[in-house]
């Protein structure tokens, strides 16, 4: 005779309640996404107004507002190498009404170099999508070397004499990686941002520099800068004939050096809302007119296929630059 299994009624009741609760939670999440947004969205930018992160936040925020019929307010919280804005965003309600516009410095470099950081990039944030992935350009003054090989030749003819400028930590590490790969003995001069780099190149304080497309393009078009190469193998619509650094310098193993800007939400934001925001950015970027507006500002529109793809990208960038940082020796990061 087969033994009879008796399930206590209380267990059946608990299981039923748990199932009902799960169903209710799923329905609530679906309703949250369906009704989102029904009020103003705040987008925290950890930089002053006018920079690339601020520009792209305002472009994307304006289109979100038009599509969703709700205001998108840009809040500039600069300082602390983006930590002030990051901490404010991380402490905000995880309801989709506070978004954050971090960059590679925020999500990769700060955790690698800053002790006691007041936030964790993947612990305190839910990645949504990339907004842009701008490549660095190797630039000189208009009367400088005409090609990368000319620049390398000058540097090798005068070891330790040429100065190399770079701004963000990512750019500084990229500059060191280029110099090391090419066998150059040059001095790295760190700057706080592109305006300082531009001035240094133009007055001759540095002999060449890594600078962003957005700030380099107006100087190139004005005939004050010369771009020798793009630090990437990706197409660059604004300068379609510019060779890649790996090709022009005959350094096939040289990886891309790019500054990137993303969109994130406080950790715990419902996944349905995160997905809805990601899909909205993808829709915005499917508009050729929007892409053209960004390119005119020197910004390449690059989105992630899914939030998970952005999270994986952050992990891979952390691993890559951690190795470069360890191999860089005494780089000045302050």
Q: How would you describe this protein?
A:
The chain starts with 8 loop residues before the first helix and ends in a 7-residue tail after the last helix. The strands form 2 sheets. Strands 4, 5, 6, 7, 8 and 9 form a 6-stranded mixed β-sheet that branches. Strands 2-1-3 form a 3-stranded parallel β-sheet. It is globular and about 70 Å long. The chain is α/β, with parallel strands linked by helices and 334 residues long. It contains 12 helices and 9 strands. Helix 6 links the parallel strand 5 and strand 6. Helix 1 runs parallel beside helix 10.
Using brief descriptors, characterize the structure shown:
single chain; 334 residues; alpha/beta; six-stranded mixed β-sheet; three-stranded parallel β-sheet; 12 helices; 17% strand; globular
Question: How would you briefly describe this protein structure?
Answer:
This protein has 334 residues and is of the alpha/beta class.
Percentage of residues in helical conformation: 40-55%
Order of helices and strands: HEHEHEHEHEHEHEHEHEHHH
Structure class: alpha/beta
Oligomer: single chain
Alpha carbon gyration radius: 24 Å
Beta-strand percentage range = 15-25%
Biggest beta-sheet profile: 6 strands, mixed
* Average pLDDT score: 89
- Which spans have pLDDT < 50 for at least 5 consecutive residues? none
**End-to-end distance:** 79 Å
Number of strands: 9
Figure out the total of helices: 12
Write down the overall geometry.
globular
